[in-house]
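Journal club prep, notes for RB
We'll compare a predicted complex against what the paper describes. Inputs for the magnesium ion case:
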Amino acid sequence: MKITLSLIKADVGSIGGHTKPSKEMMEKVKQHLSEQEVLIDYKVWHTGDDIVLLMSHQQGKDSDKVHKIAYDAFVAAANIAKEQGLYGAGQDLLSDSFSGNVKGMGPGVAEIEFEERANEPFVAVSADKTDPGAYNLPLYLAFADPMHNSGLMLAPSMAKGFRFTIMDVSHTDKDRVIELDTPEGMYDIAALLRDNQRFVVESIHSRETGEQAVEVSTTRLHNIAGKYTGKDDPVYLARVQGDFPATGEVISPYAICHYVAGFMRGSHTGPMMPVKVNSEVSFFDGPPIVSAQAFCVKNGKITDGCDLFAHPFWDTVRQKASEKAIAIREQGFSGAAMLPYSELEYGGIVKKMEKLHGKFKLREK
Ligand code: F6R
Ligand code: MG
Ligand code: MG
């Protein structure tokens, strides 16, 4: 059966700062999705202050019906957030009226349409206090590096490698993309993916079958809104097992707790901490967090999720992420601890710098 999985997320308000949505908001979203005949199935969870909707249906990608369901669910949750006096109510809904597609309106979207395999396992990954480039390294390692994906050596079905589609997210009027193949294009891919703020993995396909493995939400809110409205807090779907990496290979790179952009005010560098589903953020509005759930889908019905970072193994990793967070926070605003000027997500510093530049004097040598 041909189905589409739509993973759509938005921050529409949270308790006591940018921490987590309220129980009532979550219930409202679930109730709204339960009333939709177009959906075969759905799951709802939150990652920090972002509500994540996973929906299965047969409407294909970019369906206005499905996007409207998501938009209305977020509006309903934002209304509850307003009633409850929560912080940042409606934050990611950049436009007041729905225009047929939630892409470009604030919410992050990752969708894959495929013919279900006999067994169709997949992983849904969601992050808070970071941007889509945060997934560049974990996706590169999971799909191109035998240090994490032993299947690249051991499984004949992966021997041909994968095709990476990479988007230049600084280009906003049209989508500017490049397709590069592993293994021969690995150094070119690395050359692009090192720049997490500009080049972002959009999708990955198997070269053996042509089937799509991964789709990432590539929205950059500050490119859409033209001003700071929060970090993008990206999501992705990864089909796993068989011709694709195993579930454990897909999540293996998260043991690194690599440093990503985001953290406090979307303007710092922090380690990505793998957390349990429905976690909040805390220290310095972070650290940046990521959660992952594995599911199977059959005729569009989605099983219960397996919370991949709930296992005791990840307690040690979380400890490491905390240590890395403390280490970089020790140097406060200095150098690598903060993002470059172009990535600082608050306009205040621009005005401050303009004022300071006006006070500089030129001195004869
Ligand atoms: C980062 C984030 C928070 C806020 C910070 C200040 O993505 O959401 O760190 O930037 O709490 O929030 P405002 O500007 O809403 O007071
Ligand atoms: Mg927020
Ligand atoms: Mg968020």
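Talking point for the session: The chain has a mean pLDDT of 94.
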